[in-house]
Amino acid sequence: MPTITTKDGTEIFYKDWGSGQPIVFSHGWPLSADDWDAQMIFFLGKGFRVIAHDRRGHGRSTQTGGGHDMDHYADDLAALTAYLDLKEAVHVGHSTGGGEVVHYIARHGESRVAKAAILSAVPPLMVKTEANPGGLPKDVFDGLQAQLAANRSQFYYDLPAGPFYGYNRPGAKVSQPVIWNWWRQGMMGGAKAHYDGIVAFSQTDFTEDLKKITVPVLVMHGDDDQIVPYDDSAPLSAKLLRNGTLKTYKGFPHGMPTTEAETINTDLLAFIKG
């Protein structure tokens, strides 16, 4: 399996297919590069080079005990882009991966980056604070950690079977294979990485990162997102970005890159080519 080794000895697994302008995909918590299958195949067929990695502690990467924070996530992504010597790359991040992309660009600069897209993404800040009154209370995220610690396998079934893909909505067309694929990806990763990752995605404030970015960024979010509520995320991020465009999807769930792949892929392609 292709891997790179970071400066702290963590092995990061990645896929690198095709040639042409590179598109780099950063996955959501607690998943893996496999969550981008629908996008990787689509953009490979459109003549792009497609790259996706498993975040540290996730998927096939090292189940290290530490470094599960946005600084390490961004630095690991920077190490991968440097190793592959990517130029004019388009970075696409879903959920936690959207935070990773934003932090990577702000922390490491735009010399290798052409554009970015963040989908159902956690910025600017998920947790409720005095400065972010519309956020979710900290006890929501404490509850996620408690469920993970108590019975990760059950938790990783209930989340995709319910709010992640909107399968708890009346009339939803439920796909059992999609649920089990989510479960499979989650259980491949390490419990410690996933436990710490809840703090990383919920308590990191990306406000200053968003302000630093000058490349075009497409902010894509469903207004029925039950994981990262729309009102306190996408519109705020789009305002903070110097060159941001907001695209709102009526009724789309958090996991829209999977359930609404055709629409998402078409819009991403138009943005990348535009």
Characterize this entry briefly.
The chain is α/β, with parallel strands linked by helices and 274 residues long. 43% of the residues lie in helices and 16% in strands. It is globular, with a radius of gyration of 17 Å.
Can you describe what's shown?
An 8-stranded mixed sheet has the order 1-2-4-3-5-6-7-8, sandwiched between helices. It contains 10 helices and 8 strands. Helix content is 43%, strand content 16%. Strand 7, helix 8 and strand 8 form a beta-alpha-beta unit. The termini are far apart. The model has no long low-confidence stretch (mean pLDDT 98). The protein is globular and about 40 Å long.
Report the strand count: 8
Give the % helix.
Answer: 40-55%
Q: Return the string of H and E elements.
A: EEEHEHEHEHHHHEHEHH
Give the low-confidence spans.
none
Widest β-sheet, arrangement of strands: 1-2-4-3-5-6-7-8
**Average pLDDT number:** 98
Q: Total helix count?
A: 10
Radius of gyration: 17 Å
Distance, first to last CA? 34 Å
Strand content: 15-25%
Overall structural class, as computed from helix and strand content, comes to alpha/beta
Give a short account of the largest sheet: 8 strands, mixed
The outline comes out as globular
List the helices and strands and how they pair.
Elements: E1 3-5, E2 11-17, E3 22-26, H1 37-45, E4 49-53, H2 70-83, E5 89-94, H3 96-108, E6 113-119, H4 138-164, H5 176-188, H6 191-203, H7 207-212, E7 217-222, H8 234-240, E8 244-249, H9 256-259, H10 261-273
Parallel strand pairs: 3-4, 3-5, 5-6, 6-7, 7-8
Antiparallel strand pairs: 1-2, 2-4
Helix pairs in contact: 2-3, 4-5, 4-6
